[in-house]
Amino acid sequence: METRVPPALARIAELFASLPDPLKTQLLLEYAAKMPEAEGEAEPVEECQTPFGVEVGFDEAGRVRLAFQVPPTAPTVRAFGGILAEGLSGLTPEEVLAVPADFFRGSGLEAVLTPRRLNGLEAALRRIQERVRQRAP
């Protein structure tokens, strides 16, 4: 399968890349505030140190819908949920499955986040892709 960063996710990565580091941190907080909250029991992303639950669903048209459970005391991880929701929700399963795990490389997030945090973001995307693969209509 060819990997491809969808336009919404590419725009997010480009926005981070265009900002100085202090503004990247501020933008992360803005994405944390946008994170959609899971209504049910979200599946944990085991690779993350911070509790990070992912809820993957589909709308009537079979497009992906995402929501997350993350403690309010973990704004960086909540930001990951906000970024993934904005960048992936509404896509077809095939589009979600084509996203490369390292889509954020080159966005400058490496300058403001630890490698462990970035690994958590990759793990969350992989978990979403696993669930999409298993449950797609």
Write the layout of secondary structure elements.
Elements: H1 7-18, H2 21-34, E1 43-44, E2 53-58, E3 64-69, H3 75-88, H4 93-97, H5 115-135
Antiparallel strand pairs: 1-2, 2-3
Helix pairs in contact: 1-3, 2-3, 3-5
Sum this structure up briefly.
With 137 residues, the protein is mainly alpha-helical. It has five helices and three strands; from the N terminus they run H-H-E-E-E-H-H-H. Strands 1-2-3 form a three-stranded antiparallel beta sheet, with helices on one face.
Please give a structural write-up:
This protein is mainly alpha-helical and 137 residues long. The chain has one domain: Sufe protein. Chain: A, CATH 3.90.1010. It has five helices and three strands; from the N terminus they run H-H-E-E-E-H-H-H. It has helices spanning 7-18, 21-34, 75-88, 93-97, 115-135; strands at 43-44, 53-58, 64-69. The protein has a three-stranded antiparallel beta sheet, with helices on one face. Strand 1 and strand 2 form a beta hairpin. The longest helix is centred in the C-terminal third of the chain and has 21 residues, at 115-135. The protein is globular and about 40 Å long. The two termini are 19 Å apart. 32% of the residues are buried.
